[in-house]
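The record is passed on directly below:
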Amino acid sequence: MMSCVVDPYKRQVWQVWQKMEAFITDILTLAKDAVLSQAWIYPLLGISYLASHPELYSAAAPVVIRALTISIAITTAMFFFTYISKMDSWVYQHRYPSIQRKSGFQM
């Protein structure tokens, strides 16, 4: 009787194992193809080319400065509007656990 109950579970475990094995094989094949294609080397070659040709700095500087400015502005805004408000509610909740406070952005 026990073998009848265990057999479906063994079958399910075996099917999951086969799916995981196929998934891992696919991932390893994809990783091997990516490394052997050497497509990852082109950004490094571009950086070294830019570093070895100073006359390109004047053309690349405005783009890099604008990208850095936008990245810093977005990171600062996300930090201010999401993290600070969450930390405020977390500190308030742990400092005064008996008081229920409405969720939302409040200063």
